[in-house]
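Researcher: Let's run the pair from yesterday's discussion. Sequence first, then tokens, for each.
Model: Starting with the first of the pair.
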Amino acid sequence: MAAPYGFRFDCGRICLDLIATAGAGPAGPERLTGPGPLAAWLAGAGLLPPGDPTGGPSGAPPGGLDAAWVARFRALRDLLGRVVAEELHGRAAPSDLARLNAAAAAAPPPALRAVRAPDGTLAATLATPPDCAGLLAAVARDAVALLTDPAARGRLRRCAGDGCALVYLDTSHGRRRRWCSGAVCGNRARVARHRRRSGGAR
């Protein structure tokens, strides 16, 4: 089943999945187009339990989630994109690292609690209504943890697909993954290779 709004959750980390919403290259157009898409991304990333009563009914944006939240998440996304790209090729600018650290320390990430659902199973809900700064902090802390972990950082890869700039965490056996997605960029590469071979044969 496809993620709503065409979101990708296959980059291996929450911070990288946020960068992927920018829609550069084959990833397509801008995806964080308003409060509804942002709420769906937050739920898909696991930062908001889907249908959490403190965050509004299923499919509805949490109370308070508005255009200002969208602008702040886009700004963090742009910052993360720069920092990750710069760290892949050298060192991130000190000013960008300072902004990342400030976002990570701005507020405590939302706390989850376990509650008994009507069917008897345990479900996750938020202990308090979601706060934009806390959700931003959760993503920023994920980026800090990724970039300061030598093992994880060593698995960062840029997609080999033509025109694709997405970065992902390579957790494949033998660390041989080449594309952000085998079904997207990998399939494009296979189709292009087949066309080249067919053309050469003719």
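Model: Moving on to the second of the pair.
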Amino acid sequence: MIDDLYSARILALAANMPRSGRLAAPHGTGEATARLCGSRAVVDVVLDADGRIADFAQSVKACALGQAAAGVLGEAVVGASAAEVVAARDALSAMLKAGGEGPEGRFEGLRALRQVADYPARHASTLVALEATVKALAAAGVSPPL
């Protein structure tokens, strides 16, 4: 059953984490840690004049599930509004914890993590990059609906 969790798709996403690293002059930085396992993400954002993400970098130390979620995030986040990021975080959380359908639109790739719902101890790690991104947006002065 654990082999189903770490599918080839999840491992491929984890191995390809776009926008890895840190930005030299971010508008906001956010950090999140999953207490149970210690997975950690630090995210930097630069916003455009409309408050959308113009540049993004992430430093993620997490299990394959957290890295896979960060991989999807890194591919899709540039151009996103704070509302889109918060909606993706909330939809991913609902998918993992309450049988929700998962994120739509630019973050629909996070649905590949649907099987994590059966492993509650892995939920926080899977959410850590999105949580850090929401905090980075808040630190940049964007008031996403938390």
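Researcher: Give me one sentence on the second I can quote.
Model: The CA atoms of residues 30 and 135 lie 5 Å apart.
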